[in-house]
Amino acid sequence: xxxxxxxxxxxxxxxxxxxxxxxxxxxxxxxxxxxxxxxxxxxxxxxxxxxxxxxxxxxxxxxxxxxxxxxxxxxxxxxxxxxxxxxxxxxxxxxxxxxxxxxxxxxxxxxxxxxxxxxxxxxxxxxxxxxxxxxxxxxxxxxxxxxxxxxxxxxxxxxxxxxxxxxxxxxxxxxxxxxxxxxxxxxxxxxxxxxxxxxxxxxxxxxxxxxxxxxxxxxxxxxxxxxxxxxxxxxxxxxxxxxxxxxxxxxxxxxxxxxxxxxxxxxxxxxxxxxxxxxxxxxxxxxxxxxxxxxxxxxxxxxxxxxxxxxxxxxxxxxxxxxxxxxxxxxxxxxxxxxxxxxxxx
Length: 346
Fold this sequence. Notes:
By secondary structure, this protein is of the alpha/beta class. 37% of the residues lie in helices and 15% in strands. It has two domains: 2-149 and 313-340, no CATH class; 152-306, Rossmann fold (3-Layer(aba) Sandwich), CATH 3.40.50.2000.
């Protein structure tokens, strides 16, 4: 496993440390804490890995890992969670960190590298149709669609109707968690916001005097209980895939989400959640008022989440890898069955 930076605190026992190869950035003082500031160095970091001994490379990326350099004969399959956000959401993403126009020359150079790097993988596998469409639009390449795995066994089906609404997210500006806080203030509903990120301070200030509480980072061991205690999870921004609604469904809890992006693919309206149509606090508040937990069956929610179980993901990924390795990208596209992609409502 090759990665730019490795943080044992964040990764826990996910992978044995002896298997992890890090880049020169691992030695940068405070680099793991201020990893976003190292963005200009990530292209060089990933290109510096010597992967010449490998016949198959699978990268998992939002920006940088797709740019690794492999031997000419190697198969490189890139599992892409989204194209680089600075390509299609500059103001909401880069501008959201308060650097805006100051970063444009640097980001322009990174964007040039990013588009060149997108030519390197043999094939792309996207985590959603939403992301596959972005890959086609931004990189001019097709992508297979294989939804992310959900660790359903981590969650037990909860009892009762829950006590609060929950946002479980990285605290970044484009996540639009401000809408959830404002909607909670409008409705008087209790809201818990769990997660960490650079927007934490601003969100805590916004929540003062309201029925919302920003509790910060929550250990993995406590997340299942936090979801189990919720009435519903709220997804206030446009997500690439929509993992949190599936984690909630595994716990028998529905979701309320913006009708955009990957959440449209992971929520079945009226069965596993509700949508609100406009990215505004008023639209979300209306959905929260209309929410009736008695209309959602925990068994149906759990069954929906189980479609995305890790075992099914592994089976489908192996089938894709085998086909691409044997027949190349075009051959695999002809021979992979459509039911390798679970459809919403299936």
